[in-house]
Amino acid sequence: MRTLLAFKWPLLMCAIAAMIAAWLITSLLPGPSISLVIPDETSFQVTKPGRYTLWLEAAASTHAHSKLVIFSTTLPPGVSIAVTKPDGAAVPIQTEWPTSKNNSSVGTIQQAIGNIRFDSPGSYRIAVEGLNEKRALLLDQSDMRGFVLKIFIAMGLPMVFLGCLGWALLIFLTRRRKPADAIPPIPR
Protein backbone atom coordinates (compact mmCIF):
# COMPACT_ATOMS: atom_id res chain seq x y z
CA MET A 1 0.00 0.00 0.00
CA ARG A 2 2.85 2.34 0.85
CA THR A 3 4.39 1.88 -2.58
CA LEU A 4 1.10 2.77 -4.27
CA LEU A 5 0.84 5.98 -2.23
CA ALA A 6 4.17 7.09 -3.71
CA PHE A 7 2.42 7.41 -7.08
CA LYS A 8 -0.52 9.50 -5.84
CA TRP A 9 0.77 12.92 -7.00
CA PRO A 10 1.79 11.97 -10.54
CA LEU A 11 -1.45 10.00 -11.02
CA LEU A 12 -3.52 12.87 -9.60
CA MET A 13 -1.82 15.31 -11.99
CA CYS A 14 -2.51 12.93 -14.93
CA ALA A 15 -6.16 12.69 -13.91
CA ILE A 16 -6.45 16.51 -13.69
CA ALA A 17 -4.82 16.86 -17.14
CA ALA A 18 -7.29 14.31 -18.55
CA MET A 19 -10.27 16.19 -17.03
CA ILE A 20 -9.02 19.50 -18.45
CA ALA A 21 -8.64 17.84 -21.88
CA ALA A 22 -12.21 16.52 -21.71
CA TRP A 23 -13.48 20.00 -20.74
CA LEU A 24 -11.57 21.60 -23.63
CA ILE A 25 -13.03 19.15 -26.14
CA THR A 26 -16.59 19.69 -24.94
CA SER A 27 -16.17 23.48 -24.78
CA LEU A 28 -15.07 23.62 -28.43
CA LEU A 29 -17.91 21.44 -29.77
CA PRO A 30 -20.81 23.40 -31.27
CA GLY A 31 -23.99 23.54 -29.26
CA PRO A 32 -27.57 23.56 -30.48
CA SER A 33 -28.44 25.93 -33.34
CA ILE A 34 -31.64 27.61 -34.50
CA SER A 35 -32.20 28.67 -38.13
CA LEU A 36 -34.49 31.63 -38.82
CA VAL A 37 -35.70 33.39 -41.98
CA ILE A 38 -36.44 37.10 -41.58
CA PRO A 39 -37.88 39.86 -41.94
CA ASP A 40 -41.10 38.28 -40.71
CA GLU A 41 -41.69 38.14 -36.98
CA THR A 42 -40.70 34.62 -36.06
CA SER A 43 -40.96 32.60 -32.88
CA PHE A 44 -38.39 29.98 -31.96
CA GLN A 45 -37.67 27.55 -29.15
CA VAL A 46 -34.58 27.67 -26.97
CA THR A 47 -34.01 24.25 -25.42
CA LYS A 48 -30.68 24.94 -23.72
CA PRO A 49 -30.18 28.26 -21.93
CA GLY A 50 -26.86 30.08 -22.27
CA ARG A 51 -24.92 32.45 -24.49
CA TYR A 52 -25.77 32.28 -28.21
CA THR A 53 -24.17 34.04 -31.19
CA LEU A 54 -26.56 35.56 -33.74
CA TRP A 55 -25.18 35.07 -37.27
CA LEU A 56 -26.30 36.52 -40.59
CA GLU A 57 -25.96 33.74 -43.17
CA ALA A 58 -24.97 34.70 -46.71
CA ALA A 59 -25.51 31.23 -48.17
CA ALA A 60 -27.99 28.96 -46.45
CA SER A 61 -30.22 25.99 -47.07
CA THR A 62 -33.78 26.90 -46.22
CA HIS A 63 -35.64 24.21 -44.31
CA ALA A 64 -38.98 25.01 -45.90
CA HIS A 65 -37.87 24.43 -49.49
CA SER A 66 -34.71 22.31 -48.92
CA LYS A 67 -32.73 24.32 -51.42
CA LEU A 68 -29.68 26.56 -51.27
CA VAL A 69 -30.49 30.27 -51.19
CA ILE A 70 -27.85 33.01 -51.52
CA PHE A 71 -28.40 36.14 -49.43
CA SER A 72 -26.47 39.40 -49.15
CA THR A 73 -23.54 39.37 -46.73
CA THR A 74 -24.63 42.53 -44.89
CA LEU A 75 -27.74 44.10 -43.46
CA PRO A 76 -28.73 47.49 -44.91
CA PRO A 77 -28.53 50.58 -42.69
CA GLY A 78 -31.53 51.19 -40.45
CA VAL A 79 -32.35 47.54 -39.77
CA SER A 80 -33.37 46.83 -36.20
CA ILE A 81 -33.53 43.38 -34.62
CA ALA A 82 -35.43 42.78 -31.38
CA VAL A 83 -35.66 39.54 -29.42
CA THR A 84 -38.38 39.23 -26.78
CA LYS A 85 -39.38 36.73 -24.11
CA PRO A 86 -42.90 35.24 -24.05
CA ASP A 87 -43.98 37.94 -21.55
CA GLY A 88 -42.84 40.68 -23.96
CA ALA A 89 -39.65 41.61 -22.07
CA ALA A 90 -36.72 42.47 -24.35
CA VAL A 91 -33.66 40.20 -24.48
CA PRO A 92 -30.59 42.41 -25.04
CA ILE A 93 -28.30 41.78 -28.00
CA GLN A 94 -24.65 42.67 -27.41
CA THR A 95 -23.19 43.67 -30.76
CA GLU A 96 -19.98 42.21 -32.14
CA TRP A 97 -17.35 44.86 -32.80
CA PRO A 98 -15.51 44.33 -35.01
CA THR A 99 -17.77 41.83 -36.74
CA SER A 100 -16.38 38.38 -37.25
CA LYS A 101 -16.86 36.08 -40.21
CA ASN A 102 -17.15 32.32 -40.18
CA ASN A 103 -16.94 29.95 -43.10
CA SER A 104 -18.52 26.83 -41.70
CA SER A 105 -17.66 23.30 -42.78
CA VAL A 106 -20.95 22.90 -44.66
CA GLY A 107 -20.18 25.79 -47.02
CA THR A 108 -22.23 28.57 -45.49
CA ILE A 109 -20.74 32.02 -45.01
CA GLN A 110 -21.76 33.69 -41.76
CA GLN A 111 -21.28 37.14 -40.28
CA ALA A 112 -21.68 37.64 -36.53
CA ILE A 113 -24.30 40.22 -35.60
CA GLY A 114 -24.15 39.91 -31.84
CA ASN A 115 -24.49 37.78 -28.72
CA ILE A 116 -27.68 36.94 -26.84
CA ARG A 117 -27.93 35.33 -23.40
CA PHE A 118 -31.04 33.21 -22.84
CA ASP A 119 -31.54 32.64 -19.11
CA SER A 120 -34.19 29.96 -19.46
CA PRO A 121 -35.51 27.56 -22.07
CA GLY A 122 -38.77 28.42 -23.78
CA SER A 123 -40.38 30.23 -26.67
CA TYR A 124 -38.90 33.53 -27.85
CA ARG A 125 -39.73 35.93 -30.69
CA ILE A 126 -37.48 37.83 -33.06
CA ALA A 127 -38.76 40.86 -34.96
CA VAL A 128 -36.84 42.67 -37.70
CA GLU A 129 -37.74 46.12 -39.00
CA GLY A 130 -36.33 48.03 -41.95
CA LEU A 131 -35.68 45.02 -44.15
CA ASN A 132 -37.67 44.25 -47.30
CA GLU A 133 -35.90 41.17 -48.64
CA LYS A 134 -35.52 37.82 -46.92
CA ARG A 135 -32.37 36.92 -45.04
CA ALA A 136 -31.30 33.91 -43.02
CA LEU A 137 -30.19 34.12 -39.40
CA LEU A 138 -28.63 31.44 -37.26
CA LEU A 139 -28.47 31.30 -33.47
CA ASP A 140 -25.87 28.89 -32.13
CA GLN A 141 -23.90 28.24 -28.99
CA SER A 142 -20.45 28.17 -30.56
CA ASP A 143 -18.56 30.22 -28.01
CA MET A 144 -15.25 31.43 -29.35
CA ARG A 145 -14.33 33.49 -26.27
CA GLY A 146 -10.94 32.37 -25.02
CA PHE A 147 -10.34 30.22 -28.11
CA VAL A 148 -6.62 31.09 -28.33
CA LEU A 149 -6.12 30.45 -24.61
CA LYS A 150 -7.86 27.07 -24.95
CA ILE A 151 -5.56 26.16 -27.85
CA PHE A 152 -2.44 27.01 -25.78
CA ILE A 153 -3.76 24.94 -22.87
CA ALA A 154 -4.48 22.06 -25.26
CA MET A 155 -0.94 22.26 -26.61
CA GLY A 156 0.53 22.10 -23.08
CA LEU A 157 -1.59 19.19 -21.81
CA PRO A 158 0.39 16.41 -23.56
CA MET A 159 3.60 17.76 -21.99
CA VAL A 160 1.99 17.78 -18.53
CA PHE A 161 0.64 14.26 -19.04
CA LEU A 162 4.00 12.89 -20.28
CA GLY A 163 5.84 14.73 -17.50
CA CYS A 164 3.61 13.10 -14.89
CA LEU A 165 4.15 9.67 -16.43
CA GLY A 166 7.92 10.32 -16.36
CA TRP A 167 7.63 11.40 -12.74
CA ALA A 168 5.81 8.14 -11.90
CA LEU A 169 8.47 6.13 -13.76
CA LEU A 170 11.22 7.93 -11.83
CA ILE A 171 9.50 7.10 -8.55
CA PHE A 172 9.16 3.48 -9.65
CA LEU A 173 12.83 3.19 -10.60
CA THR A 174 14.17 4.84 -7.44
CA ARG A 175 11.98 2.74 -5.13
CA ARG A 176 12.84 -0.64 -6.62
CA ARG A 177 14.36 -3.13 -4.20
CA LYS A 178 18.03 -3.77 -4.45
CA PRO A 179 19.06 -7.25 -5.57
CA ALA A 180 19.77 -9.80 -2.82
CA ASP A 181 23.48 -10.05 -3.65
CA ALA A 182 23.91 -6.30 -3.15
CA ILE A 183 22.77 -6.51 0.48
CA PRO A 184 25.81 -6.83 2.75
CA PRO A 185 25.85 -9.90 4.94
CA ILE A 186 24.88 -9.49 8.57
CA PRO A 187 27.93 -9.94 10.81
CA ARG A 188 27.73 -12.83 13.30
Poorly predicted runs: none
The gyration radius over C-alpha positions equals 27 Å
N-to-C SSE string, H for helix and E for strand = HHEEEEEEEEEEEEH
How many strand segments?
Answer: 12
Shape: elongated
Largest sheet: 6 strands, antiparallel
Strand content: 25-35%
Structure description:
- The protein has helices at 2-5, 8-28, 147-174, and strands at 33-38, 42-46, 50-57, 59-62, 67-70, 80-84, 90-91, 93-95, 101-103, 109-118, 122-129, 135-140.
- The strands form three sheets. Strands 1, 3, 8, 9, 10 and 12 form a six-stranded antiparallel beta sheet that branches.
- The protein has 188 residues and is α+β, with helices and mostly antiparallel strands.
- The chain is built from three helices and twelve strands.
- The chain has a domain at 38-147.
- The mean pLDDT is 79.
- The radius of gyration is 27 Å and the shape is elongated.
- Helix 2 runs antiparallel to helix 3.
Notable traits:
single chain; 188 residues; alpha+beta; six-stranded antiparallel beta sheet; four-stranded antiparallel beta sheet; 12 strands; 28% helix; 34% strand
Can I get a quick summary?
By secondary structure, the protein is an alpha+beta fold. It has a domain at 38-147.
How are the elements arranged and paired?
Elements lengths: L1 H4 L2 H21 L4 E6 L3 E5 L3 E8 L1 E4 L4 E4 L9 E5 L5 E2 L1 E3 L5 E3 L5 E10 L3 E8 L5 E6 L6 H28 L14
Antiparallel strand pairs: 1-12, 2-11, 3-10, 3-12, 4-5, 6-7, 6-11, 8-10, 9-10
